[in-house]
Structure formats: structure tokens, C-alpha cells
Design brief:
Elements: H1 9-42, H2 48-56, H3 67-80, E1 81-89, H4 96-113, H5 115-129, E2 131-140, E3 146-152, E4 159-160, H6 163-167, E5 174-182, H7 183-189, H8 194-197, H9 204-208, E6 216-231, E7 234-244, E8 255-256, E9 264-268, E10 270-274, E11 277-281, H10 288-307, E12 313-314, E13 354-355, H11 362-380, H12 384-387, H13 396-409, H14 411-435, E14 440-445, E15 451-456, E16 459-460, E17 469-470, E18 481-489, H15 491-508, H16 513-522, H17 529-538, H18 552-625, H19 629-667, H20 674-717
Antiparallel strand pairs: 1-18, 2-3, 2-9, 4-5, 5-6, 6-7, 7-8, 10-11, 12-13, 14-15, 16-17
Helix pairs in contact: 3-5, 5-14, 10-11, 15-16, 16-17, 18-19, 18-20, 19-20
């Protein structure tokens, strides 16, 4: 049960011991079978007593290990199909961009931790021994910030308490990771420990369970859960950690873990529950008997060949020449010919010496071994095509299908790795939220492992960006995200496969090379591939120059940006045109005003000249027709008044005519020039009135002078 309150150290150690004993008992059978499997994979395949007896009798006990190949078939699939984690928004405060940043952070954490080693190690142990582990730790970087790490568990037998609950799909409430340390090293690290001082007391439990030996001391990471507050009716646990020696808590090792889950994740083999007990199976579990029979058969062949006598020659007595040493060394040396006596000792002809043939049962033993090899393939479900050997299949499709069939029989190992990785993704998501909760710059990785630096937990505008971003990945107010795990080939593997596929396509269709050459060489590792890709890209038609330009969404976005820029440019042009138009209109108005004034002055002069001629004509008429002075005076006064009115009307008509023409010309102009036009018009009218007034005054003066001269003339005549 989880701890409910702080205990005394003695009770704490007693509880830890009890839990360790429980874990030992629960996992005993699982560990025994896993240890046998790993022994076979490592080549330790003979029963110890049989091997000892055979060696004592001088008989061979040979090992022809074929099991590691089957384990590598599964573990190398994990190397080729790497787990990928993605995050999806889980509420309104989460967004897709932040989810992509979380994915990039997860990739960067795995890359910095070399996490692929942890995954490959765990699945290799699960395939070879039925279970393995990987785990999470935190460490402080150079800047004093905490960083998350994923590390391998190189010895799965060092972990206790995690395996048994995992077989029932339950969360472990405690766990141990043991380490056997040389006693001298322990005493140097913990000089105040009772073990270092020799104050061990009753060491029976310590010795019985392997915690204390003659020259070693076992220490263990002890993970345990304490009950915390309930949220939504669900019990929340606090995970804690310390190091113990089996009889004490080592100083300065107690700490609280950041998550509510013990960060040691098992990767299981094939599992089932039988008679209430869990059982786990590796790839090689049912190959052990066949492998032993192969070793027996091969050893028997070697033994037969070693003990079989060399076939002797059958000769008649007297056929071997006396003193001929060749016959004595015949079994150790090769001679081109041998001489023999044709007569036996009785002087009778004898046939040539003949060797007595003896055939040991090698062929039958080899057939037996071949049968056991087939049994190994059948029990594992992995056949020649998957093991890289030539089989009956001749086409690539048939070989691929046979490999796929073999992968189907071992898929549960990859599936169990995926399940463990998904749980690890949840741990990463929660720990990122806790550890990376401040405004900082972090490195993320894209799917193609391209690095990028981003700022998290702060509103900012990325370099070259147009809008502000806020990647809120940490803190209590961060959005919720769900992890999605997939298993797929590594990006480099996909790239090489793409290059191979396009190479085959272009070999059969060379005309496609100019169209796909740039993509093909971007997926190549050959020297100069980037330069070739750039050259092929420049040779493409304009509509294929850039895939982004053919994207409707990006085209619309680009067109929208171009439209906005065009509008801004048009506004600037319009403003500048209006400025030029105003300047032009001002000059036109000024020019037109001057022309109108000159025209008015010319018309005024003509009107005055006309009036002068009329005046002379009227004066002549008055001179000839008037009979007396009064009539002449009256007639002159009337004539003067009439001429004055006519001149004024003629001048007014000329001014009105000029004004109307100017108004007709200005009517087509814009309302913005109205004020300037009116000002010019008013100036023109003032000049016109002044001219009319001056002309009228001159006319009056001339008339008065004429009348005066006439009066004087009349007075002289009288």
C-alpha cells in the first residue's frame, strides 16, 4: 500500500524490506525463465552437469548458436521503425502551433538523451529474455535549468517491483533499482554508515537476500508512492525517491519526484495470465530445445569424425615391399604412387591392395540437424527471407510478403514498445509542463531532425514573422494536449528508400528525370547531391519551380499580400498625382486669368474706340442739324447721356461675355479648385471694373471737352 504518513526510519526500512521480498517472490519464475533465455542467446546452451561430464570424458560439447539471429531480427526492426510521438490539442486553451513545438521539444529531448539506445535496449531484452526497461531522469544543465533525460536500463534484472504489476496492467506503487557496489567504494562514499563501521547486528536478512557479501554491498534506488489529495474522486499519489542500503536510508538522498508516476517503464514480450500467475515469453523461449538438439547433433558429427578409424588397406602377405616407408606413412602423407609385390609369399599372383571402406553416419546426422533448424524457424515464425538467406522466393514482391509474414508473428514486441512509449509520452508531456515553465529559449527538432531555436512561455514575434506567437508549454495555465504515438521508419531510411524508388522509376522512364531529378537527388547522400538538385530545379517549368507556389492556400496568401502592397502603392501614387494636379491646376488657372484679363482689356479698347467714333458721328450730326443753342445743348446732353449708357452697356456685355466663357472653362474642373478659381475670377472682375471705370471717366472727360469746345465755338460765332 502507498505510504500515508511519514514513518520512522526503522519502520520505513522494514516496509522497504517487506516490499523487496514481495517483489522477489512475485517475479521469481519470470526471472528464472528470462535468465535461461538470455543464457541461450549468449551461447550458454548446455546443461552444466552434461557439459562437465562430456568434457571429463573428452567428448565435445560444441555450441552452434543460431538464436541471436532471431533476437536481432526483432531488435533491429525497432532500430529501423523508430517510435514517433505527436501531440494534439485537448482543450480551447491549446493550439496546433504549440502542439508542434511540444513535438519538437520531445524530439530534442530524445535526441539529447540518445533515447533510441534506451528503446532498442529494452526491446532487445524483451525479445531475448521477455522483458526490458527504459526510464526518465532529470539533471541540471550548465545554466542551472533542469532538463529531462531518457536513459536505458542496461540490466533489467536490477529492477524489482515494476514487472509484476505491469503484467496485470496496473501502476506500480513501489520499485527498486539495485546496484552491487564494492565494499571499499561504499565505505569511502558513506563512512558514517553502520555497514562501514561494522555495526551490522543481525545481518541474516541482508546476506540471505543478497544485500551484503564478503566484498560487496548492495544499495538501491527506492521509489514509493504516498497518497495525496483527491481530484474529481480520483486518488492522486505523490512519488518519492531515496537510496537505501537494506538497513538505512543513505544521507541526503530523499527527494520528491515531479510526476505522479514512477518513471521506470517496462517493455514486455508475449504475455498471458495462466492459473492466476503472469507468464512472459521471448522469441527464443520455444527454440531452446531445438537449439540444444542442434548442438547435440553437431557435436555428434564432430565426435564421429574424430573417433572413426581411417580405412585400412587389405593386402596379401608379402605384397608390401620390404623397406618401403611409404606404406607406413600413407595415412599422414600423400604420395603420387605406391609400389606393391604382385606375388604373395607362396609365389602366387595376388590382386592389388584395396582399402576397406567405412562410411560414418554423417549424412543422417546432418539431416537431423537440418530438421532442428527448421524447427527453430517454425517456433519463432521467422523464416529464411527474413533472416537474409536465399529462399524459394525469386521476386521482390514474394520476398517482401514473406518478410511481412515474419514481421506479423513478432509484431507484439513492437506493439508493446509502442505502448510503453505512449506512456512515456505522457510522462514527457507532464514533465515538460513542470520543468519548462519559464520564459526561455529551447531547441526543437523537426521530423527531418532539422534543429530550430524557439522561445517558449512568452508572447513574442519570431524573426521574420508577421504575427506574435505565444508557445505556452509550461505552467498551470498551459493548455491540455493528448499524445499520439506511431511507429515508422526513420527519416533517413525513408529518404534512402525514396531515392531507390525514384532511381528505378527513372531507369524505366528516362524522360521523367528532368521532372523529378531535383526531388530524387535531395533524397540522396552522394557527394554533390544538393548542387545537382538545385540545377534540376532550375530546369523545371515555371509552374513546377516551387511547390509552395502551387499550393492554393499559399497562393491566396501571397496574392493577398501582393494586393495589399498594390493598394498601398496606389494610394501613394494617388496622393502624389493629386499634389501634381493641384500644382498644375493652379498654374492653369493663373494662366487662364491672365489671358482673360488681356482679352478683356483688348475688348475694352475696342469698345472705347467704337464709342469715340460714335461720339464723333453724333457731334457732326448735332453740328449740322441743331438750329439753336438750347436744342443743341439739349441734344448734346441727351447724346452724352446716351453715349455714356451705351459705353457702359458695351463694356458690361464684354465683361459678361468674358466671364461666362471663363465660367464655362472652369465648370469642368474639380470642386477642390473652386476656391482658387473664384479668387482669380474676383481679381479679374476687379481689374475689369477698374478698366471700365477708367474708360468711362476718360469718355466723360472727352465729352465735356468737346462740349466746351463747341460752346466756345458758338460763343465766338455770336
Amino acid at each position: 500500500m502507498p505510504e500515508k504518513s511519514e514513518q520512522s526510519e526503522a519502520d520505513f526500512i522494514a516496509t522497504a524490506r517487506k516490499r523487496f521480498e514481495q517483489a522477489e517472490d512475485d517475479e521469481k519464475l519470470l526471472r528464472q525463465e528470462a535468465a535461461k533465455d538470455l543464457d541461450f542467446v549468449a551461447g550458454d546452451q548446455w546443461d552444466p552437469k552434461q557439459k562437465q561430464d562430456r568434457e571429463a570424458a573428452g567428448r565435445p560439447a560444441m555450441v552452434f548458436n543460431r538464436m541471436h539471429t532471431f533476437v536481432q531480427q526483432v531488435s533491429n526492426e525497432a532500430r529501423q521503425n523508430k517510435p514517433q510521438i505527436k501531440f494534439a490539442p485537448g482543450d480551447d486553451s491549446a493550439d496546433k502551433d504549440t502542439a508542434e513545438v511540444l513535438e519538437g521539444m520531445a524530439r530534442a529531448i530524445q535526441n539529447a538523451s540518445d533515447a533510441q539506445v534506451a528503446y532498442e535496449t529494452s526491446v532487445e531484452y524483451s525479445a531475448g529474455g521477455s522483458f526490458g526497461y527504459f526510464r526518465f531522469l532529470t539533471e541540471e544543465n550548465e545554466d542551472g535549468d533542469q532538463e529531462l533525460k531518457i536513459v536505458p536500463v542496461l540490466d533489467p534484472f536490477a529492477v524489482y517491483g515494476i514487472l509484476f504489476p505491469a503484467c496485470f496492467n496496473r501502476e506500480p506503487k513501489f520499485g527498486f533499482v539495485i546496484e552491487d557496489m564494492p565494499k571499499e567504494e561504499f565505505e569511502a562514499m558513506y563512512p558514517d554508515s553502520p555497514i562501514s563501521k561494522g555495526d551490522i547486528g543481525d545481518s541474516g536478512w541482508m546476506t540471505q537476500h543478497g544485500w551484503l557479501g564478503t566484498d560487496m554491498v548492495r544499495i538501491a534506488e527506492y521509489w514509493y508512492c504516498e497518497e495525496g489529495e483527491k481530484k474529481g474522486g480520483k486518488q492522486i499519489y505523490k512519488v518519492k525517491f531515496c537510496k537505501i542500503s537494506g538497513m538505512e536510508v543513505l544521507p541526503d538522498t530523499k527527494t520528491d519526484w515531479l510526476d505522479d508516476c514512477i518513471p521506470i517503464l517496462p517493455v514486455l514480450g508475449k504475455g498471458m495470465i495462466r492459473k492466476g500467475r503472469p507468464e512472459l515469453y521471448s522469441v527464443v523461449r520455444f527454440q531452446r530445445s531445438a537449439q540444444q538438439m542442434i548442438n547435440y547433433g553437431k557435436s555428434r558429427i564432430a565426435e564421429t569424425l574424430a573417433t572413426s578409424p581411417i580405412s585400412p588397406f587389405i593386402v596379401a602377405k608379402g605384397q608390401i615391399p620390404k623397406g618401403d616407408k611409404k606404406w607406413e606413412t600413407l595415412n599422414s602423407k600423400v604420395y603420387p604412387y605406391l609400389e606393391y609385390e604382385q606375388m604373395d609369399i607362396q609365389g602366387k599372383p595376388a590382386p592389388p591392395p584395396q582399402r576397406q571402406t567405412f562410411e560414418p553416419p554423417i549424412q543422417s546426422l546432418s539431416g537431423f540437424v537440418a530438421q532442428e533448424i527448421d524447427d527453430m524457424k517454425a517456433t519463432a515464425g521467422i523464416f529464411d527471407a527474413s533472416l537474409g538467406q536465399k529462399s524459394n522466393e525469386t521476386s521482390g514482391t514474394a520476398i517482401a510478403r514473406r518478410q511481412q509474414q515474419s514481421n506479423m508473428t513478432t509484431m507484439h514486441y513492437m506493439d508493446n514498445l509502442e505502448r510503453a512509449f505512449k506512456k512515456g509520452g505522457g510522462i514527457m508531456r507532464r514533465l515538460i509542463r513542470i520543468i519548462y515553465d519559464t520564459d526561455r529559449m529551447v531547441q526543437i527538432l523537426g521530423e527531418d531532425q532539422a534543429p530550430k531555436i524557439v522561445r517558449i512561455n512568452a508572447l513574442h514575434t519570431p524573426p521574420g514573422g508577421k504575427s506574435a506567437k505565444h508557445y505556452k508549454v509550461g505552467g498551470s495555465d498551459a493548455g491540455k494536449y493528448h499524445e499520439i504515438v506511431t511507429m515508422g521508419r526513420a527519416f533517413s531510411t525513408k529518404r534512402m528508400e525514396s531515392f531507390d524508388m525514384m532511381s528505378e522509376v527513372t531507369q524505366g522512364n528516362p524522360q521523367l528525370m528532368p521532372m523529378i531529378g531535383d526531388i530524387m537527388f535531395r533524397n540522396s547522400d552522394v557527394a554533390g547531391a544538393d548542387q545537382l538538385a538545385d540545377r534540376f530545379h532550375k530546369m523545371l517549368p515555371p509552374n513546377l519551380q516551387d511547390n509552395d507556389e502551387n499550393d492554393p492556400a499559399k497562393q491566396a496568401q501571397a496574392l493577398q499580400g501582393q494586393l495589399m502592397q498594390a493598394k498601398q502603392h496606389l494610394q501613394l501614387l494617388n496622393a502624389y498625382a493629386q499634389k501634381l494636379e493641384k500644382e498644375k491646376e493652379g498654374k492653369v488657372i493663373e494662366t487662364q486669368g491672365r489671358a482673360q484679363i488681356a482679352q478683356f482689356q483688348e475688348e475694352s479698347k475696342r469698345a472705347i474706340a467704337l464709342m469715340q467714333e460714335e461720339t464723333k458721328r453724333y457731334v457732326a450730326e448735332v453740328s449740322t442739324k441743331a438750329q439753336d443753342v438750347r436744342e443743341r445743348l439739349k441734344l448734346g446732353a441727351d447724346l452724352d447721356k446716351q453715349m455714356h449708357v451705351s459705353a457702359h452697356e458695351a463694356a458690361t456685355q464684354a465683361v459678361d461675355h468674358t466671364h461666362e466663357r471663363g465660367q464655362a472653362q472652369q465648370a469642368a474642373q474639380q470642386a477642390q479648385q473652386a476656391q482658387a478659381s473664384d479668387q482669380v475670377h474676383e481679381s479679374g472682375m476687379a481689374d475689369k471694373n477698374a478698366a471700365i471705370s477708367a474708360e468711362s471717366q476718360a469718355s466723360d472727360q472727352q465729352h465735356q471737352q468737346t462740349m466746351a469746345e463747341q460752346s466756345q465755338s458758338e460763343t465766338g460765332q455770336q
